[in-house]
Amino acid sequence: MPYYSTPSVPPRDNRHKKQWVIPAVIRRRSKTAGVIITQYVVNIPEGKSTPDFESKPIPVSIKEGQVATFKVAVKGDPKPEVSWRRAKGPITDKDKFQSKYDESTGEHVLEIIKVSGEETDTYKCYAANEYGKAVCTTTLNVIEASKNPSDFRKLLRRSKVEEKAGGETDKRFWDAMLNADKKDHERICAEFGVADLNSILKKLDEKKKERAKNKDGAIPYDEDGTETHSPTRGGRTNNSNIRGPMMQKVDEEVKLLLLNTGLNLTEEEAALLSTGFKLSDVDFVIKIQELKVLEREDALFACVLTHPLPKVTWMGKGGTLEDGEKYSVTVSDHKLIHRLLIKDCNLLDKGIYSAVAGITSCSAWLVVQAESDPASAGLKRARKATLASGALIDLEKVAKEQQIKSRGEMEKILAAVKAKHREGRAEEGKSISGRDGAVTGPDENSGAKTGAKIKKSKGKGSEAKLDASGRLIGDPESKRRIRSGQMDFDKVTGTNEEGYSEDDEDFPGSANNSRNRKQGQETEDEETESSCRDVDDGTSHTDMADCDGNKDSSGTVRRPRRTKKAQRKRRTSGRDPNEAAASGDEESDGGESEDSTGQLKSSRRSKRSQRLQKAVNGESTCPEDYSEYDETEDKSGEPATRSRRKRQGPLTEDVVIDPGVHFICGLSDVSAVINESAELACKLSSEDCEGAWFRDGKKISPDDNFSASKDGAIHKLVIIRCEEEHSGKYRFEADGRKTEAMVNVKDPPRCDRADVTAFAEPVTVKVGHGAIFKLRFVGHEPVKIKWYREEEELLDDDNNNAKIEKSASHSRLLLSRCQRKDTGEIKIKLKNEHGFTEAISQLIVLDKPTPPLGPAEVTESSAICIEFKWRPPKDDGGSPVVNYTIERQQVGRNTWKKMGEIPGVPSYRDTDVDHGRKYCYRVRAVTAEGTSEAMETDDMQAGTLAFPGPPAAPKVVSAYDDCVNISWTSPNKTGGSRILGYIIERRKKGSNLWTVVNAMDELIKEKKYAVKDVVAGMEYEFRVTAINLSGVGEFSNPSEFVFARDPKKPPGKVTNLKVTETSYTHLVLTWTKPEDKPEVQDEAKGYFVEIRPAECLEWSRCNTTLIITTSFSVKGLKSMNMYWVRVIATNDGGDSAPEELANYVLAMPSPVRPKFTNHKMKSFLVVRAGNSVRITVNFEASPRPHIMWLKDNVPVTKRVTISNSDGSSQLLIPSSERSDSGIYSILVKNLAGQETFSTEVRVTDDPKPPGPVELDENVPGTVTVIWEPSPDEKRDDRLHYTVSKLDSTKRTWTTVADKLFNNRFTVCNIMHGREYHFRVYAKNDMGVSAPSDSPTCGKEKKKEKFAVSVPTRKDCDLRCAPTFIVPLKLHNAPKGYECYMSCAVKGIPKPRITWYRNHVSLNTDTNYYISNTCGVCSMSILRVGAKDMGEYTIAAENGLGRAECSTVLSVRGERETPRFSSEDGLTHSGPTRQKRATAAEHKQLRAQLQTVKRRK
């Protein structure tokens, strides 16, 4: 989505009396990720385009000293110019940075020669043409070379850590996941490169549970503390004697926070209060709300906390947001309101933003919407901050109320913690026994009262525990009183429902603290005087007048502290009960008092008086719902009253304590600017109290630099002119109270207002001229100065035609040879360690306008005139168009006629034309800067007949018995002249005759009409034609048929809706059409079927067009999903009420018991070892069954592959072994039943032949054949034997026995005098083995033959062992060429030839072509490779012996090229030469072999 930015329009120049108009600058994202395109003009001519990157440069990490290369491919018309820049400096060194263009690939290349650490930087590539520019970035990371191996190990280890940082180990990843919605989890994982989403979600649940546990747990987690369990106590304690630096830092932050709450705490009291206050108690009173803003606007998130915090953590886009140029983080003076301002929002800022306070967080969406108004596109608006809907609440008012509430809570916590602290020191080691339980003293190691148990008598004696902060844990009564957003006071101090605390103590900050403070610390008599001081409600100590309860300096009445001896004496002496009763009455009549929030406590006073009266009368002083007593005796041995504490005398009356003067609002930290004023203010509770101001402990006296004033109860200190030495801690003291704040004087860069105003004035120059911008400033040095043009930083570079001058007090920017595209915003940014400032100006470069935009549109063409219009120029050059000059040429002539100038309206009407002639026009735009090039129109003819085109088909708006209302739209083609009106025709359904509704003299001007000439009940259609100056145009397409009748009533609901058929992907519905009731419901015209998945709330229609049948098949369902279905009847009157099925429909067929459909399945299967085993079973079952394959009643192993589909299942063993033999069973089971089928699979191979065969002839006429078993007999239980016999009188073998499972067989009918041979075969399911022959049995009786003595010739014995007459030669073949080996061997009988490579037989290897022709043995390797290198051996063997011959084949690495010799002509080294040599060698070997044969 592009977004637009336009420089603000400069003010009217009184000298030129004209208004400057600035063209829009459009920024948009490219389809290539990370590329930003800036478009200079709004409308780009057809065929032209802005630059864009087809491929981005890839980030490079390279070792030092190598060459780094970046490549990009760009597109655009005109062809863009590509340039390179870097962030840290120029790239003008041509020897170092070489930019080139590769024409073969069309890529622009930047090479950095011999990179070093100085070249590590971010590099930008710019592609620009006259219509815009495109920018993309990349990075170069140079790895420094090191010779130390340990450095490489560190580098490797660091790279691994950095690689992990982008995934699960990145803290930003988990922060984003914890604060995001479920729908964003997948997107966040993709951004951080995390693939395993399921495991991440499991870890995320664990982290959320852990965070909730840490947030809600009663015992906070202390990272450096150790948790100890005591067998003598029911609670747990945290041993925090050893605290790490992290906890110390948190404590210091809490202590500093408490000092700034306006409670006037001392550091000691803040340290005590920090033990009772935890950051986990902070919550949000008002959370941040969802924001919707437009582009270029500011977004403001705001939240209010329950307790003041100096800082909250703002999260967004997967990381922490810091205060800077983009984000502004602010906090109110009272630290309760925190705000995040997101400046200049764009679409990339859209997402979830979170505020984290302690362990509590809140999140909200920021939605950035693109500019929807096209008229305002490209115009830069004045920024405004958009607030959330919840931000309309008066945050200051809510914060003030919360501040008062939190201050009261802090005071209560402080009182409780002080009491615990004093009790822990006074009663350490003691235990106070009660009737129902005991309160045990503090742990010796902790020094605080932790783990104490308080048992109540009410209920069933539930236990309540106090932790180290005084918080009540496990009390069901207090748990019911917890309120969100604040700490419950009863839970912290352990009070009951009447408001009494366990120790009956005062609470600072309230007027009801008249109860006596219990002193449990023993003191000596000589410390009595010093003990007359006590802690007041404002946490400051003041001196008392005496030790008898007189008023102190603040006017408060305090009960004097006494030593233990004095208290014991008073208890022993006793007190008159009447006196005690009187004191109780006086207290009751003493009036009502107010606490810190102004609420009355009269009922509480009356209850306290009743308790005192009960104590006098010997009754219990505890509330009825909190009864815990100790049985005690006084010193006289007489039993005393039962009370919660060991008291030896009657109760004394309480004394009312006046809180005195205290601070309503304390000081807040101030950040001031040097040489400007700063103000500190606080408010007291009294207007009559004076105070004093201090800085760093020294009192401030009013002088020229400081001014102190008092306005009622408000005290102010004004620093008139801040200097650096005025920074420090300021304190205001009044009536023993004090409040402190820090003043930090900064010296950020700043400019004089007049200079900024002058700088903001736009600078206007003509094209080709230079522009100068200058600004003076002051500020703490060093000041970093940066200049920007349209948010792009300008460097001091000649390529940019920019020169920057910098000094300690001013900076100047000189832009030379300015072009029109340089028009835009010029900004200077000044920054130092104290802050930054910006100033913005505008550069306007004036040029002549571009030509007007065509093509020209003819608005009227008649016999007397031609009128046409065009569009203004894309760029007016910075000046408005004043006039247009018009020239005309008659077609066929060479001269142009000047028609004159017209005002700046882009249209022209030429009345000086001749009928039928054609004209051409030239239009030029004229501004104050010059005249543009001409825009030439197409030929225009005067007075041609151009009829209008057809309008769109009319639409029926409404229909009645006597009228039909229709409407239509204008035709796209008007014929070059205006439309005079329209004519309507109508036709009845079934007729071919169109009837005119209105005559030619009654043309319809508007594009709607009410046709009244209709007959009720008839069905009509309509068409429209337009008429212009030329005549009547074409008719439109007819409208839909409509009945002329009053509107119908909607139909009723369908009935008998039911499902007749279901499957995994579809269901079939049937229903009965609704009844037709006149005046109530009309007949249905059709039906719509709607469906809704059970987990979805929205209905979707299954048919887009009406169906008229009462059945429908809903397709595209998901298997086993639940769906709700309904049917709606409809007609012209509207839709009926939907009729919905009573129950959901499950996408599955009707239940069907599993059944096997393939009846040709084999129950026995024999497979050769090494082949695959495949068993396919087809079945029918509904719902989809569970399928299990078993082998010998045990689930199949992982090497077996199971493939299941809707109606079949397949078992596959890719390469079978003999161990895979067994019975395989398939179990198909569903809700309707189960079915099983078994197949026996036997994996075997051709059997090996039996062992040696022996014959036994013990019985005449029989021979027993005995043989050794086959080696496969033990592995194949189906292996058997077959015995065959050969009689010497016959020439065929006959089988005498088959399927023998033993190793012997007796053959009968053996004839004496004949020879017999026997063979034994081993057989199995796969085949028959080779035979094992027996020795010859019996001898045949030879007949005497007639012998003729003929002289015989003794034949020559030619048999000989194999020998090689021509051996193998060494071969060195080129890689990829053919290699041919040959040799000659002789031997009789013909020897058997075997080739070997590295002692591995090659006779069966198809990669080698082997032949043996007449003793010439050859082997050919078609393409020689490295794998063919080695030793090659040929063996020749016959019955007389064996011979071998070897050679070595080596392969040359590169192919040789033809070589030319001056002596021999062309010499080839390659396949051709080798083939010729091989043929000659072959011929020579044959000749030698023939010679040997002839000799024999």
Number of helices: 14
Task: Give the distance, in angstroms, between the N- and C-terminal Cα atoms.
Answer: 99 Å
The helicity comes to 10-25%
**What does the overall shape look like?**
extended
How many β strands by DSSP? 100
Structural summary, described in words:
By secondary structure, the chain is mostly beta strands. Helices cover 13% and strands 37% of the residues. The protein is built from 14 helices and 100 strands. The strands form 25 sheets. Strands 1, 2, 3, 5, 7, 10 and 11 form a 7-stranded mixed beta sheet that branches. Helix 6 crosses helix 7 (395-426). The longest helix is centred in the N-terminal third of the chain and has 32 residues, at 395-426. The chain is extended. The two termini are 99 Å apart. The relative contact order is 0.04. Residues 1-24, 149-166, 216-251, 374-380, 428-656 and 1455-1477 have low confidence and may be disordered.
